[in-house]
Automatic annotation (TrEMBL):
Belongs to the bacterial solute-binding protein 1 family. It holds the Pfam family SBP_bac_8. This is ABC transporter substrate-binding protein. It comes from the Bacteria. The keyword Transport applies. Keywords: Signal, Transport. The lineage of its organism: Bacteria, Bacillati, Actinomycetota, Actinomycetes, Micromonosporales.
Length: 405
């Protein structure tokens, strides 16, 4: 009776080999719009294969990374997954979970397509392990123009003191929580932006490469300023994802939010037009960067399909289709500004001339263990405001997870 079993087309032997499961945390809004752009390019370039959406919602991969870790542990990898360039990617490389893509870089002509410094963030011992899709900027302050105008704020603050003065103006104008904030990783972002202002780019870099002492008096001063900054934020921050804080801004309940430039795409996707942006006050021309990249996991069911996905991700057309909707800018250096919204056009210009620093919660500066330790220290601080305890915890995290001296 073997031969008489009926199969629908999707159950035909070999049909599974066409599916490419792409694992991300881009489930909604501008993130989904970006992913859809990339999928459109994949459908054209890789018509033999079928995209399967493995997205797990939750900002910065707060849920997705855990789901991924357990799948990798059970030897059930998706065909490809999103991983941040830099230290976070090294986690997977060190655990021997990724295939070397050096041959594909040569075959697809990618070796000179990306900035040299970015390629270094994807390389270990001469092997390149992922294809970058974009460059995001983390240190951007988004604002609700109408709320600012009502409080008489007509210019972007360029110093921390100026920012505190504007936050006070907003309070005086009746805006109870001028600065919208979310939970753990979003608090890390706000604190890092403030650290960039307080320390400058070189000392900020030193926090991650071992050159700056986390126990220093300048860090104590920064934590005190951060504590003051929290007084302008919503008390329910620890229950908020970045999109909940963004909603406060859209609803006019807050004037500002510090967030990566996926917010540009998300505000656009939600049809909210009344927004402004500036670099975080005091950051000058520092561009705090992070990059999403895609990998070929060892044991992927459909390595050929994944290679087609990766080729699309690295192509000029794929990067344009994706980044125009994602708020980020192409990692490739040869994609023109045509078709990009005003925000990304400005970011493309800034990227060329700015001083670059990495981000811990978005993996360019720290691996996942360090991210987690900082996140829980800041979560605790959000509740107890204990300056000395936060500084001790941050120094301990650097000693445990940072470069060994
Ligand atoms: C990712 C972005 C994403 C953001 C918010 C970051 O870690 O790199 O692609 O939009 O998290 O979810």
């Amino acid at each position: 009776m073997f031969a008489t079993v009926a199969c629908s087309s999707s159950e035909e032997p070999g049909a599974g080999a066409k599916k490419v499961e792409v694992f991300t945390w881009w489930a909604d809004g501008g993130e989904k719009a970006g992913l859809d752009g990339l999928v459109g390019a994949f459908k054209t370039d890789c018509a033999d294969y079928e995209f399967v959406n493995g997205a797990v919602a939750g900002g910065a991969g707060s849920n997705a990374k855990q789901v991924l870790a357990s799948r990798l542990q059970q030897n059930d990898p998706p065909d490809t997954f999103q991983a941040h360039a830099g230290a976070e990617l090294s986690d997977y490389i060190n655990d021997d979970q990724l295939e070397d893509l050096s041959a594909q870089y040569t075959e697809w002509g990618l070796s000179n397509a990306f900035p040299k410094g970015l390629i270094e963030n994807l390389t270990v011992d001469g092997k390149i392990y992922s294809v970058p899709a974009n460059i995001h900027r983390a240190n951007v302050l988004w604002s609700n123009k109408t709320v600012l105008a009502k409080a008489g704020i007509t210019k972007d603050a360029t110093t921390l003191d100026g920012f505190f003065a504007d936050l006070d103006k907003l309070k005086a104008a009746g805006v109870a929580t001028p600065l919208a904030l979310g939970k753990d990783w979003t608090q890390q972002m706000l604190f890092e932006a403030l650290l960039i202002s307080k320390l400058g780019p070189e000392k900020f870099n030193g926090l991650w490469n071992g050159g700056t002492d986390w126990k220093g008096a300048d860090i104590t001063a920064a934590i005190n300023d951060y504590k003051k900054l929290l007084t302008y934020t919503n008390k329910d921050r620890d229950t908020f994802d970045w999109t909940d804080a963004e909603k406060m801004l859209m609803d006019g309940k807050a004037a500002y939010q510090l967030m990566g430039d996926w917010e540009a795409a998300d505000l656009d996707a939600k049809g909210f037009k009344d927004y402004g942006w500036s670099v975080f006050p005091g950051n000058g021309n520092v561009f705090q960067w992070l990059a999403d990249s895609f990998v070929l996991p060892k044991g992927a069911k459909n390595a050929d399909g994944t290679k087609c996905w990766l080729k699309t991700v690295g192509s000029a057309t794929g990067q344009a289709a994706f980044n125009q909707k994602k708020g980020s800018i192409p990692a490739r250096t040869d994609v023109g500004t045509d078709g990009f919204p005003a925000y990304q056009q400005a970011a493309m210009g800034d990227w060329k001339t700015a001083t670059q620093v990495p981000s811990c919660p978005h993996g360019s500066a720290c691996a996942q263990g360090w991210q987690g330790a900082v996140g829980s220290a800041q979560g605790k601080f959000s509740a107890d405001g204990d300056v000395a305890a936060l500084q001790t915890a941050l120094a301990a995290a650097a000693a445990e997870f940072g470069p060994k001296k």
